[in-house]
């Protein structure tokens, strides 16, 4: 009788994993078009700079982040903001 218990759990576990996978793929907010995200090397490893809306526009216009300017300018162009105009 104990040998058949894993076989009873198998289909339930498989269904639960499939449901969890579907939930993970279909949930979450859609990406905003006015967001700027840049991943770059820092002294303690990788770092990320992220801003949306007015903060992203200000970040792009400032052009003040010289070490990551190439990556930031690409991200700003993708979001539709001019880079280094402020």
Briefly summarize what is shown.
Helix content is 50%, strand content 19%. By secondary structure, the chain is an alpha+beta fold.
Characteristics of this structure?
86 residues, elongated
Descriptive overview:
The chain is of the alpha+beta class and 86 residues long. It has a domain at 35-79. Helices cover 50% and strands 19% of the residues. The protein has a two-stranded antiparallel ribbon with strand order 1-2. A hairpin with a 2-residue loop joins strand 1 (35-42) and strand 2. The longest helix has 22 residues, at 5-26. The chain starts with a helix and ends in a 7-residue tail after the last helix.
Mind summarizing the main beta sheet? 2 strands, antiparallel
Strand order of the largest sheet: 1-2
What share of residues are in beta strands?
A: 15-25%
What class, by secondary structure content?
alpha+beta
| Helix-strand topology string | HEEHH
The counted number of beta strands is 2
State the helical fraction: 40-55%
Count, helices = 3
Distance between the termini: 75 Å
Please compute the radius of gyration using only Cα atoms.
22 Å
**Kindly state the mean pLDDT as a whole number?**
81
Spans of 5+ residues with little confidence (pLDDT < 50)? none
Shape, per Cα inertia axes: elongated
């Amino acid at each position: 009788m104990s040998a058949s218990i894993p076989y009873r759990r198998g289909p339930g576990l498989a269904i639960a994993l499939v449901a969890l996978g579907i939930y993970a793929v279909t949930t979450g907010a859609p990406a905003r078009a006015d967001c700027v995200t840049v991943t770059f090397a820092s002294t303690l490893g990788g770092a990320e700079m992220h801003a949306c809306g007015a903060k992203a526009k200000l970040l792009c216009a400032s052009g003040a982040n010289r070490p990551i300017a190439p990556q930031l300018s690409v991200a700003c162009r993708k979001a539709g903001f001019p880079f280094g105009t402020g």
